[in-house]
Amino acid sequence: MKHITFLLALVISLTTFAQNTSAENDSLALRKLYDMSLLNGKSYEWLDHLSNQIGGRLSGSIQAEQAVQYTKKELEKLGLDKVWLQPVMVPKWTRGTKEYAYIETKPGESKTVNICALGGSVPTPVNGLKAEVIEVQGLEDLAEYGKEQIEGKIVFYNRPMRANLIQTFEAYGGCVDQRYAGAAEAAKYGAVGVIVRSMNLRLDDYPHTGSMSYLDTPKDNRIPSAAISTNDAEYLSSILKLTPDAKFFFKMSCRTFDDVQSHNVIGEITGSEFPNEIIVVGGHLDSWDLGDGSHDDGAGVVQSMEVLRLLKESNITPKRTIRVVLFMNEENGLRGGNKYADVAKQKNENHIFALESDAGGFTPRGFSFDCTDAQFKQVEAWKPLFKPYLIHFFEQGGSGADIGPLKNGNSVLAGLRPDSQRYFDYHHAANDTFEAVNKRELELGAATMTSLVYLYDTYGVEGFPTKMPFKN
Description:
By secondary structure, the protein is an alpha/beta fold. It is about 35% helix and about 25% strand.
């Protein structure tokens, strides 16, 4: 009996020692990754070129193609095992000349306002469009007013993002439907155009673009759709209260072309022990055209590239294949994410973990995870390793748009979650530029992503069957 008790105590002691040693080794590994990113990082330098030498990278544009070639070249410099381009057909929409708009209270009295065409909108007539305005708070209000009050008018959607929601993406989700489907719904009631309050929590003069859709609206019934700055939305609303018959004029020359070929940019380090188990990290290479897309999503692109660079520079030999994917066309189609998942399915690739950065280059707070309860417990066990870096937000639910199609019921999908309070000040607007990104915050995000990838590579994914083929 004493012999058995001694052996049991020895096993417990050895297990505890192994666990403590493992935790200490992980802690040292993470410390090295953070040191390298903060002292010798490349993400800010890459973002500088992407933003200031290339600029806005609208899907199908010359700038998008330049970004493809630049990032491919930079990944090749890292000495990865493989770098390649994955062809994908993407939509091509152009803004044309700068939009112009004014509010007319009576003939000869007007005030110019700041607008921008929403991505995918049809243009106004060549000489512009002028009509009376009806203000609504959302799609659900249209039925209340009906065709009698809407026909021949411009619908002004003025539902703001809710300022009392701490999770700003929740506030965004609460009103973005009026931007996406506003024109399609207003056209059913005979509206001649749509103006949408910008998705922005602060009051300023920047109109914020974004994707819109006509859904199943026939081409002949499609109406122009534009965003108006929050300051001017407030002004228009106040004018309509005083002068209900005020008119709104706007002129846009945007245009949609046939789809063109573009590419996802992919690079990988082949796993030393489990090369068929793939870990993906990525962001989207395209952006809107008003600014240079530094936060959305230049930051996610360079952080994802930095993950592979930091692993190599740290002399870490991954057990599993680590793959960076720079997705094309997230903003107005998600073609890159869907194409990547389709090819993965065709090849029966075994994706065990995917991490996306598409919430800006602000201070990282943690991650959200699309995973099972057991898999989330595995993640929670790693929280003490992140505590020294003030990473404390670990939440189950949600990941990223481009990696979403990879979901298969066994893999883990995750999204980097930076502090989001300022994100929508810049999102899809002309002030989303390189100067708005803080170098240290960007580098902290890159290190945080690399740390999570390192842990999943080291320990694998809880409950993931080995060599399981990819399936939707």
